Amino acid sequence: MSRIDRRLARMSVPGTGRGTRAKRAMPVQTALEWAFRVEKAQLDLPERPDPERGQGFGFGLEYVLLQRAALGCKIDGGQHKIGGYTHEDAEVIAATVAGMPDSLGGKRMAIRVAELARAGLTPDWMPGAVPRCVPVEMERNRHGARAATVVVGTARVRVRGPTVRGTWKTIEILACPVTFSPHPEQIAAARRAYDDWWQALAWVREGLIEGGILREVEVTEAMPKVRPWER
Fold it and tell me: What is the pTM of this model?
């Protein structure tokens, strides 16, 4: 949401005739879990325009939210939540997530944020993971388990024999292939994914706070830990 749109979104909303109710303060992660897990809000992801078919960009998220703010109307909830009413603030939160910009992952990140919130999960950044050198393969028999080996070459050695000089014998040189588990790149990828998710939540938090459109929920400044592996 642009600065101009956010400024317009803070316009006063006509009263509904009901008494003023204290808002429920929630960190953005809690608000997302409430919207997607409790209220069963769904993402309505916009389709990409197709210039060849003459499709324009249509109305964006900003237009929808600003119209609601200006008219003071409610979202007709319940379209996704079977047997119940989806809270209007949950619908707004879902609409905000659906507008995730491409610079933060676009639709793919929006789906990721919604799925994690619906499951009540935080991305696994592999806490405590340390790469360890382990055999690539283990062999097991009735005597137990041992690291598998492969032949990497041969060598000729002199062994004792019936003569003083002994005899020469060709033997195989064996080696144990090893790897690092978990691989450092695997750990780095998990932590990059966590950081991307954190940036997406920060964008959602900023939009909901500056938009000022939520009626009964107040999103706070609190955020999940940033790069918890550095602490």
Answer: 0.69
